[in-house]
Amino acid sequence: MSANLLALWYLAASVLFILALKGLSSPVSARRGNLFGMIGMAIAVLVTLAVTRNVTLILIAGAIGGMTGAFVARRVQMTQMPELVAAMHSMVGMAAVLIAVAVVNNPASFGVLDPMPRGNRLELFIGSFVGAITFSGSVIAFGKLAGLGKKFRLFSSAPVTFKGQHPLNLVLAIVMIGFGVAFFLSADKGWVPFIVMAAIAFVLGVLIIIPIGGADMPVVISMLNSYSGWAAAGIGFSLNNSMLIIAGSLVGSSGAILSYIMCKAMNRSFFSVILGGFGAAEGAAAAGAIDKTVRSGSAEDAAFLLANAESVVIVPGYGLAVARAQHAVKEMAQKLIAKGVNVRYAIHPVAGRMPGHMNVLLAEAEVPYDQVFEMEDINGELGATDIVLVLGANDVVNPLAHTPGSPIHGMPIIEAHKARTVLVNKRSMAAGYAGLDNPLFYMDKTMMVFGDAKKVVEDMVKAIE
Amino acid sequence: MTGTVDPTVINLVVFVLAVFVGYHVIWNVTPALHTPLMSVTNAISSVIIVGAILAAGPSEVDFGSIVGAVAVGLAAVNVFGGFLVTQRMLEMFRKKAPRVENAVENAAEKEQG
After folding, report:
1. What's the pLDDT score for residue A290?
2. In this predicted structure, what is the pLDDT of residue B31?
3. Quick one: three-class SS letters along chain A?
4. What residues contact residue A256 under an 8 Å CB cut-off, 6+ apart?
5. Could you give the CA distance from residue A130 to residue A230 in angstroms, rounded to a whole number?
6. Is some CB atom of chain A closer than 8 A to the CB atom of B110?
7. Smallest Cβ distance to B76: which of A62, A123, A257?
8. pLDDT above 70 covers what percent of chain A?
9. Residues 8-47 of B with CB under 8 A from A
């Protein structure tokens, strides 16, 4: 196959990747989009296999990896999606580093001159250090998400901080770039500066992620998503492969946009998340004394109110998913709908542990997606809603977000306090991630229903007849 | 100005245009599908497997090709894992499930009535 024909096949694959992402603009077109993505990938792999040797070796390696991936994809629980995604980011990062090693070892097999020209060296440097940071950072993120903190302190979901952390990171970054320059200038293959540079990048990946707390994980996953894309693009530059550049840039910008959306939804600046430790400090300072009265009621009381309402909006939080109550909620919603109640769901962007996580958890429970609304789309209607039912959510409905001077001032919230009646299910009065008290719980129109979300909702289902 | 354009410059052109396309396409993704977006982008970025295949494919098996083969394995985890888990999630967003249940319920009601 000529190089031109190969490039044209790669172009076709690139277009298919763009169509795959475009499909995600609606749940209806999304499955077709995913199919486009698969076809694009198949084209890319097959035409590359046609121009290479050692096909047996490649097929064996691919089969082992592919079977592992397929197995995990089938088995993974939807609540574990953040861990899976973090693990997959680390694969891309490591693959980028390994490819860079192979390029340094033998540039000619990639059609790159030997010794490598400086331009390619620069690109390879960028691709491999971003890949290395993506790998080790994702491993730490995976550990934090999978709750391995009890075994290894490095994976603690609480921020791991120490004195001089930021200066150390800065020094390491400068030293890493220094070795990158040495690699750039070296006349031979430049193994020594390359290896030192990659080793420092691995360490940096760990150091960048450990100070970030569990609550900020949606940002971290999105950010690592972005990095994995830039790593792929960097490798594409050094191999002069447009398809890799295009695919990498799509993924890089996707992750960057998701990071931006998550930061905005959590009212954090990107830098305060990256620099870490923000949540812990602010929360401790802001938690005030609680001596106000709370009106609480039983699940049966709540069920009575719900069954007699005209419109109900359910606000699910991650507490709901932790209690595995999604199916019970869907059952309750169906019963209410059968009674003629207008039931909808309101999703805050950070309701789960990664962007869009709550939507997937509800979809898994077979909640029809046309009952599920994004925060901006439903906030305007909450004033005319009879009952807002808050299940396992806290900060995302905290009206303090509208109070100037509060630590979460400016954070977009689901305006549950505007509804005629608010029902809140929580296990206890404990504060949320932000460590803040929530005035919503003390309003006259609010009734608290304490208990495990699944138990409470199941009791409600029984009581609605 | 004479001479040919450096490949790096062409790469840069492709890169900038692709970032633009990415920016506009991604903002159109519905927030409800942000998790599938992340898993499918994972699968797409594993097109890096192409580089790994080239790394594994020099004429004889040596250090570089072993490293490449390992990279092929890692990227293949994502290729299959990424697309399949995305498909699994998107199946959940199908509309047919509630309709079937409604139909069953309606049938039951008719029988009772």
Report:
1. 52
2. 92
3. CCHHHHHHHHHHHHHHHHHHHHHCCCHHHHHHHHHHHHHHHHHHHHHHHHCCCCHHHHHHHHHHHHHHHHHHHHHCCHHHHHHHHHHHHHHHHHHHHHHHHHHHHCHHHHCCCCCCCHHHHHHHHHHHHHHHHHHHHHHHHHHHHCCHHHCCHHHCCCCCCCCCHHHHHHHHHHHHHHHHHHHHHCCCCCHHHHHHHHHHHHHHHHHHHCCCCHHHHHHHHHHHHHHHHHHHHHHHHHCCCHHHHHHHHHHHHHHHHHHHHHHHHHCCCHHHHHHCCHHHHHHHHHCCCCCCCCCECCHHHHHHHHHCCCEEEEEECHHHHHCCCHHHHHHHHHHHHHCCCEEEEEECCCCCCCCCHHHHHHHHCCCCHHHEEEHHHHHCCHHHCCEEEEECCCHHHCHHHHCCCCCCCCCCCCCHHHCCEEEEEECCCCCCCCCCCCHHHHCCCEEEEECCHHHHHHHHHHHCC
4. A222, A226
5. 7
6. no
7. A62
8. 96
9. 8, 11, 14-15, 18-19, 21-23, 25-47
A362-373 pLDDT tens trace: 999 999 988 999
A215-225 pLDDT tens trace: 788 899 999 99
Among the ranges A177-191, A262-276, A383-397, B30-44, which has the highest mean pLDDT value?
Answer: B30-44
Contact B19 A53 (CB under 8 A): no
Give me the phi and psi of A426, to 5 degrees please: -145, 160
**Nearest by CB to A255, which of B7, B41, B69?**
B41
ipTM confidence? 0.89
Q: What angle do CA A261, A69, B33 make, to 5 degrees?
A: 25
Cα angle for residues A245, A249, A254 (degrees, 5° grid): 155
Look up residue B55 and give its amino acid: A
**What letter does residue B6 receive in the DSSP assignment?**
P
Reference A255, options B42, B4, B86; nearest CA is B42
pLDDT at A251: 96
pTM: 0.89
| Helix (H), strand (E) counts: chain B | 5, 0
For A272-304, the pLDDT digits (tens) are: 776 654 444 444 444 444 557 888 888 899 999
User: Residue A284 has what pLDDT?
Assistant: 41
